Amino acid sequence: MTSPPPMPTAAVPVQERLDPRVRPGVGSARTRRAAQRVGVRVLAALALLGLWQLAATAANNPSFVPAPRAVWDQLVRLSTTHEGIRGYSGSLLVEHLGVSLRRILIGSAIGVAAGLLLGVVLGTVPWIRVVAEPVVTFVRALPPLAYFSLLIIWFGIDETPKLWLLAIAALPPVAVATAAAVHGAPRDLVEAARALGASRRNVVQDVVLPHALPEIFTGVRLAVGIAYSSVVAAETVNGVPGIGGMVRDAQRYLQTDVVVLGLFAIGISGLLIDGLLRVAERRLIPWRGRS
Asked: What confidence tens digit (pLDDT) does each residue in 4-61 have?
């Protein structure tokens, strides 16, 4: 008596049967959703541009609301040499932006590193947290201009006070987020690691920090955003070249179109930086959002 022939299986690769992300049609659906998101954002931008043009027409005062065309003309003029004048105050728009980005990068790196170290200490040493946490909260509540004058008295008007300002602005968000995440690490995992003979350093490095990384990265994104929003304050004194210094200088001469152009440059570059941080977050912390 012969056994019946085996039932034929679907000619689908094992990876496709096990991983729904590679099933037919899933990629095209994602592409459609991405195209829809892009389309919605483009339509929203066009609508805002139309409202801007209507507001400029209704105001009929370029010093109050410049038209989009005026801002575009300034973009072209400040990106080239026009009638013997190179950009704004001798520097092109991209050079102003590059100087500010360098300041933000250095200041944010110092603030993030110091905030990370301070946050780990605050989250693991209770008596230091009791002493230092009110100080961090106090500094976080201060507007940048409140202590920038003091930094100028201490360090002069060159690069040093600007970098200190951005570093101080970036430190509290990272410190607070790190301290909260470290302090909230699962006690059962910490106790299990200690029971297996892990030292305090190993517990922090192998258990506490991986659990805290998502919250820490959120603090880093907030810190970079705060540092970026403080760049105009940092460049109020001797800030040209620099995009914030350009905005402040144009404000003195009622060049509203240049001010608006500088704000767009800051905002768009800030969006790009935040997008890069989000990409880095997804790559460095792939377990975020997963149970």
From this structure: 555 554 444 544 444 545 555 556 777 888 788 888 888 888 898 899 889 888 888 8
Q: Is 290 helix (H, G, I), strand (E, B) or coil?
A: coil
- Letter string b/e over residues 92-120, b meaning 16 or more CB atoms within 10 A of that residue's CB: bbebbbbbbbebbebbbbbbbebbbebbb
The residue ranges of DSSP E strands in the chain, in sequence order, are 81-82, 85-86
Buried b (16+ CB within 10 A) or exposed e, 27-49: eeeeeeeeeeeeeeeeeeeeeee
59 token code pair: 């105001």
Residue 164 burial (CB count, 10 A): 21
Q: Which residue type sits at 156?
A: G
Q: Which amino acid is at 87?
A: G
Side chain identity at residue 253, one-letter code = Y
Chain segment 21-36, per-residue pLDDT in tens: 555 555 677 788 878 8
As given in the structure block, the two tokens for residue 201 are 């350093």
Are 68 and 83 in contact, with CB atoms under 8 Å apart? no
| CA 76 to each of CA 24, 82, 124, 222: distance values in angstroms, whole numbers, following the listed order | 47, 9, 53, 32
Torsion sign over Cα 81, 87, 91, 97: negative
Query: What are the mean pLDDT values of the chain's consecutive 10-residue runs (291 residues total)?
Result: 52 49 62 82 87 88 88 91 84 92 92 92 86 88 84 89 92 90 77 74 75 85 87 82 89 90 90 88 74 46
Type of residue found at 282:
R
Report DSSP letters for 31-98, one per residue: HHHHHHHHHHHHHHHHHHHHHHHHHHHHH--TTTS--HHHHHHHHHHHTSEETTEETBTTB-HHHHHH
94 to each of 45, 69, 91, 262, 268, how far by Cα in Å? 23, 20, 8, 11, 13
